[in-house]
Amino acid sequence: YYQAMRFWITGIWNHPALKPFETIVRFDPDSCFKARNDYLPYFKKGGIVYHSQFIGLERVPEYVEGLFEFTSDFMKRQGKEARNNIFWNMAEVHWRQNRTLPVLQTNFEIMRKKFMQREDVLEYHRALTEEAPFDLYHHRWSTSTIRFLTMALYATNDMVMISEADGYDHKIGCNQADVEEALRLHLYGDKKGLVTDGEVLSEKK
Fold first, then answer.
1. If residue 24 lies in a helix (H) or strand (E), which one and from where to where?
2. What is the pTM of this model?
3. What is the mean pLDDT of each run of 10 residues along the chain (205 residues)?
4. DSSP type of residue 137
5. CA gap 40, 60 in Å, rounded
6. Which of 73, 58, 159, 162 is nearest to 116 (CA)?
């Protein structure tokens, strides 16, 4: 699990498979789309560098223990301030009052490669995964929170979308029956049904 966290924070941005692409979409195997999405695999509007739904606060305090202090100290060493005051202030308030941090839904996310490969962004991510004291691994810091903090540090508010992606669903809503019903309604409305043969859908005779 820890190496998977490392991959999604730093490793993916060095992978040669990304070379032909500018927009990277992460889509977990227990996710699905149950309605039409007219903009994927691109962003819904220009100027966006990251799109993922804001889903609240990290529910396991241990997964964010020390992360806000680490990030604050990192920025002080760099002599920089967060570019997204709304996100940063939200993180600071929740950490001081609730001892937890905001999270983004990384089960599905759209990322602009050029932004994620910026040297300042990479420097923060390398500090998390590649440099001592390696607190990411000691505390199992939440990648969903790290995404939120990354946007707080380096992306202005107009560069980030945190609304639900059109048509997207996850886990419980992605069972076979629900997905097949959504597909049937999309293709045929209420006029026809579909039957399944393994994973192949065929029109009823």
1. strand 23-27
2. 0.86
3. 92 95 92 89 94 94 94 96 97 96 94 97 97 92 96 97 91 86 81 49 45
4. H
5. 32
6. 159
